[in-house]
Design goal:
Structural class: alpha/beta
Bound molecules: oxa(dethia)-CoA
CATH topology of the largest domain: Peroxisomal Thiolase, Chain A, domain 1
Radius of gyration: 19 Å
Order of helices and strands: EEHHEHEHEHEEEEHEHEHEHHEE
Distance between the termini: 45 Å
Number of strands: 14
Number of helices: 10
CATH class of the largest domain: Alpha Beta
Largest sheet: 5 strands, mixed
Shape: globular
CATH superfamily of the largest domain: Thiolase/Chalcone synthase
Length: 331
């Protein structure tokens, strides 16, 4: 039998840089309450959201991705030609095929890179990061661009009291590359197809066309809340264990920005010390799904609340249901 050569990569991988972009249109709770029976007080107390960003005229999923990715590549000190894989985590791309990643790569000046989209909803960024880490360590790619991006405003029924106040738009990107020390801990991930109806698209594309109705996102908020504050809390704890990190050693906590009350429950479960910096970008950006974790990472680093080299726990969870999390060294 002929023996095939195997690729060999870097001993470790790390996040080299982060960039993000949000739409320019700011919608506060009062604005949303024109369309749903709700109040600024209810939305603020139940979720932590005060305002969210929805696409303005001239902005798009692609434009947000381009802005976030351009910043991340520049901050990594790389040129586009040095990126050899592009992963876009999104559920907002209108085309069944081709994926967004190849055309985005070309528009960024990245040539002949592996490029594909990942559909893992609010866990999408952490799914992409897990794949990027594995690609770099296996020698399948040297520099991987991972983008988490959503324009959920395009799939939100503004009159749906269960979702209209929650979902939002944005994009975050990181570049993952080789490292002599480990900067990305083992991923903890999984799915529960028993709860596939917890967050759903109201119409599949075939029926949407037949019925002439644009699909939107439906959500059983209570079911997702319960899962996130029980099962996901355990998964977040496993992330720390698998990376060999105690709560005391953690500097930063960046959970998916789904609801501040979910974040509070996770904090209590994990018994994280007071000194841990906690992402709360949901306040200004709403729940922008796959984009929420990299946007929060960029915001904490840009404001100086978190510092390069610190240890951060991230966990994403959402439609599927799916989840993924890991401990990382901040770029
Ligand atoms: O990112 C993807 C994953 N998604 C999530 O993680 C979302 C998880 N779920 C949630 O964040 C929460 O379930 C929501 C924020 C969506 C809803 O909050 P909740 O505290 O779970 O509300 P609920 O559905 O249990 O309803 C509580 C009360 C009800 O009134 P009564 O029966 O207690 O009188 C609802 O009728 O709040 C009422 N309510 C509202 N009131 C004002 C429900 N929706 C609204 C609303 N405005 N929009």
């Amino acid at each position: 039998m002929t023996t095939l050569k195997a690729s060999t990569g870097s001993p470790y991988a790390r996040i080299l840089s982060v960039g993000s972009a949000v739409p320019s249109r700011v919608l506060d709770n009062e604005y949303m309450c024109q369309f749903i029976d709700s109040s600024d007080e209810w939305i603020t107390q139940r979720t932590g959201i005060r305002e969210r960003r929805w696409l303005a005229e001239g902005e798009s999923l692609e434009s947000l991705c381009l802005d976030a990715a351009t910043t991340a590549i520049a901050r990594a000190g790389l040129t586009a030609s040095e990126i050899d894989a592009v992963l876009v985590s999104t559920v907002s791309w209108y085309h069944q095929t081709p994926a967004l990643a190849p055309s985005l790569a070309t528009r960024l000046g990245i040539t002949d890179a592996a490029a594909y989209d990942i559909s893992a909803a609010c866990a999408g960024f952490c799914y992409g990061l897990a794949q990027a880490e594995a690609l770099v360590r296996a020698g399948q790619a040297r520099h991987v661009l991972v983008i988490g991006a959503e324009t959920l405003s395009q799939m939100t029924d503004i009159t749906d009291r269960a979702t209209a106040f929650l979902f939002a738009d944005g994009a975050g990107a990181v570049v993952v590359g080789p490292s002599q020390t480990n900067g990305i801990g083992p991923v903890v991930w999984g799915s529960d197809g028993e709860q596939t109806d917890a967050i759903w698209q109201t119409n599949d594309w075939k029926h949407a066309v037949e019925q002439g109705t644009w699909p939107s996102l439906g959500m059983n908020g209570r079911a997702v809340f319960k899962w996130a504050t029980s099962f996901i809390a355990g998964a977040a704890s496993t992330c720390l264990e698998r990376s060999g990190i105690t709560p005391e050693e953690l500097d930063v906590f960046i959970p998916h920005q789904a609801n501040n009350r979910i974040t509070d429950t996770l904090l209590r479960y994990l018994k994280l010390p007071e000194k841990v910096v906690v992402a709360r970008t949901i306040q200004h950006y709403g729940n922008n799904s796959a984009a929420s974790i990299p946007i929060a990472m960029d915001a904490l680093l840009s404001s100086g609340e978190a510092k390069s080299g610190q240890t951060a726990l991230m966990i994403g969870f959402g439609a599927g249901l799916v989840y993924a999390g890991q401990v990382v060294t901040l770029p």
